[in-house]
Specification:
Blueprint lengths: L2 H4 L2 H22 L6 H8 L3 H8 L2 H24 L5 H18 L1 H12 L7 H24 L8 H22 L7 H12 L14
Helix pairs in contact: 2-3, 2-7, 5-6, 5-8, 6-7, 6-8, 6-9, 6-10, 8-9
Length: 211
């Protein structure tokens, strides 16, 4: 009897979610390459056929946890930058989206960080670097928008980009590993501080002005 006949659609979805959550936790703590299918099914209290039914393989699990969510995140960020908002609002929304990626599934985000900062021999490293490069390019593009709008001094654009990347890393890691909340107004406050600190010559839009 197949897994689909043993459970309702809701139960099947819950089982898949539990497997993915447990896998993300193990990938983040043990490392992707060191985590076996046996580790996952024992921790999730399911059988190997159940895992294979939902994800086909350990690689399929990684695809569900990493590839698809990262593709969606990159597409969302591109949509923000292609939209009609002013440059400061675009950067704030971009940061909000990256923070939401962590808030929505902390175990998945810890898995991503473990790949970024873990052993460099992992089979997924090339894919992780690809998405890391895409996220960096989008931040650079957002900061170029601030410069074009006169909010950031051109000679400080590179330093501002580095600051944005560092702030995203610090705040998300504090959330994931120190339980420090990523509140809803954080992105707006960070953009305000960046514009004020990097010598902008223009005015912030009303939505981002310091209260």
């Amino acid at each position: 009897m197949t897994a689909s006949r043993l459970s309702t659609p809701v139960e099947s979805s819950q089982i898949a979610s539990r497997i993915a959550r447990i896998a993300a936790q193990l990938f983040a703590t043990l490392g992707y390459d060191a985590t076996s299918v046996r580790n996952i099914v024992e921790a999730a209290e399911v059988t190997k056929p159940t895992l294979y039914y939902h994800f086909q393989s350990k690689e399929g699990l990684a695809h569900a946890l990493l590839t698809l969510p990262m593709q969606r995140l990159v597409a969302e960020l591109k949509g923000i930058l292609d939209g009609p908002d002013d440059a400061a609002t675009k950067l704030a929304r971009l940061l909000d989206a990256e923070f939401a990626f962590c808030r929505d599934d902390p175990d998945r985000a810890r898995f991503v960080y473990a790949l970024f900062f873990g052993p460099q021999g992992t089979a997924l490293l090339g894919e992780v670097k690809q998405y890391g490069a895409a996220l960096t390019e989008l931040i650079e593009r957002a900061v170029r928008g601030l410069t074009a709008a006169g909010l950031i001094a051109p000679e400080r654009s590179d330093a501002c980009t580095a600051a944005v990347r560092g702030l995203v890393t610090i705040y998300t890691m504090d959330f994931l590993y120190r339980d420090i909340e990523l509140d809803d107004g954080l992105a707006r406050r960070l953009v305000t501080d960046l514009v004020e600190g990097f010598g902008g010559r223009g005015a912030l839009p009303p939505a981002l002005e310091r209260k």
